[in-house]
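seq:
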Amino acid sequence: MSSQGVPDAERNAILDAARIPVVEELGKPPVFVVRQLNREGEWTFLFADMQQAGGAPFDYGGTRKAEAARQGFVSRSYAALLRKGENGWRVVEAAIGPTDAAWEGWAEKYDVPVSLFAFDPAQ
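struct:
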């Protein structure tokens, strides 16, 4: 199911949970521009661009990834695999600033459908 089929409240809960690893690692919350949001049962795959509030590109300055970003080794993309449990959504695995398809292998690792990671060109 693509993001068009995810109700707004559920979408917001997913995005709020997805921000947690970024804040923990980088100390600043991103605004996500969702490029893909697929849900199948208790699993969700998110692929998004990170921005700052107001729409400016995400700034890695002052973070552990600042030097890598200056050298072009970090993107402003974000990918996460989330699972819904009794206490809501939680991130199972995330890639902050990947420059490749960091989620390759997640389907096998977590025994989730490969279709969860399919990209819909209409989004």
